[in-house]
Amino acid sequence: MDRKEKWDNMLVSAKEMLEKARDGHYAVGQFNINNLEWTKSILLTAQELNSPVILGVSEGAGKYMAGYKTIVGMVNGMLEGLNITVPVALHLDHGSYEATLKCIEAGFSSVMFDGSHYPIDENIEKTTELVKICAEKGLSLEAEVGAIGGEEDGVIGGGDIADPEECKAISELGVTMLAAGIGNIHGKYPENWKGLDFDALEKIKNATGSIPLVLHGGTGIPEDMIKKAISLGVAKINVNTECQLSFTAATRKYIEEGKDLQGKGFDPRKVLAPGCEAIKATVKEKMELFGSVGKA
Ligand code: 13P
Question: Is residue 157 within 8 Å of residue 148, measured between CB atoms?
Fold first, then answer.
């Protein structure tokens, strides 16, 4: 899309970038945002590396940033103010049905309706309604089958392995992408984690055909597993905790070294600068691993 034609909302649906990723055997990163610094660091890195990018917003982060409209305004302002020309999708992460409608209304370009905790018939029914709304507005829609384990911003999942037949049923509704639980967990992986279930992923891929698959819980998955998952049809990988860990470690270092006590070191723009650089380094590392560099 020519952004100049749609001056007020320059965000794009994730559909095209994910289909290109699927066909090109790489994955686009979804990086969750929490504030201005997070958003700016991710956008600048995507631009520098000429990579498409998806900005993820959980319902909790939506509340924290004063609502979905604030976020749409902030991100669109940054695309213009920072001269960002790579494709950027603004995506609701693990949305309830109500939050999904609110984000569509607010101007998000992509939404995830997480109906995985409903009985499959209800998940299908609600997803079907949202497919229709998103198609009318040209937005991409992510659906989920088989809960992702762990906890993210109050959303707790049991870590079920998705049933391939259920994945097939949801994928045939016309959603853009499908998140399927394959033993992945939000947050840090425990010592005794068994790893991703590639047999399950292969069965899901065979049952769902060409739909781009989404891997949640990207933090801490070993490189070889990421590469194998991409080779088996994963075209979008979500990363949240890892940026939080690197931001906080860099901020801690700044304070522990007493830099805030030197000169104007207390200026928030100085205090937050090392954390921003740390987020950029994490995003760069992930984009290189996922293979999206140069694919804008
Ligand atoms: P992590 O926090 O484990 O990286 O997971 C992110 C995620 O899946 C967002 O939906």
Answer: yes
Q: What pLDDT does residue 153 have?
A: 73
State the average pLDDT over residues 248-265: 98
pLDDT in tens, 130-188: 999 999 999 999 999 987 777 667 666 656 789 999 999 999 999 999 999 999 999 99
Is the pLDDT reported for residue 4 higher than 60?
A: no
Ligand 1 pocket mutation pick from 57, 112, 238, 282 by most atoms within 8 angstroms of CB: 238
Q: Candidates 28, 31, 32, 289: which one to mutate for ligand 1, based on the most atoms within 8 Å of Cβ?
A: 32
Query: How far is the centre of ligand 1, averaged over its atoms, from the C-alpha of 234 (Å)?
Result: 15
What's the CA gap between 42 and 31, in Å, rounded? 7
Strand (E) positions, 45-171?
53-58, 88-95, 110-113, 140-145, 150-152, 155-157
83: CB partners within 8 A, 6+ apart: 47
Note the pTM of the prediction, 2 decimals. 0.95
Task: Check pLDDT > 60 for residue 127.
Answer: yes
Query: Does the C-beta of 216 come closer than 6 Å to ligand 1?
Result: yes
- 152 CA closest ligand 1 atom index: 2
**Domain 3-290: homologous superfamily in CATH:** Aldolase class I (3.20.20.70)
Helix (H) / strand (E) element for 215: namely: strand 213-215
Beta carbons of 28 and 17 less than 8 angstroms apart: yes
d(Cα 189, Cα 234) in Å, to the nearest integer? 19
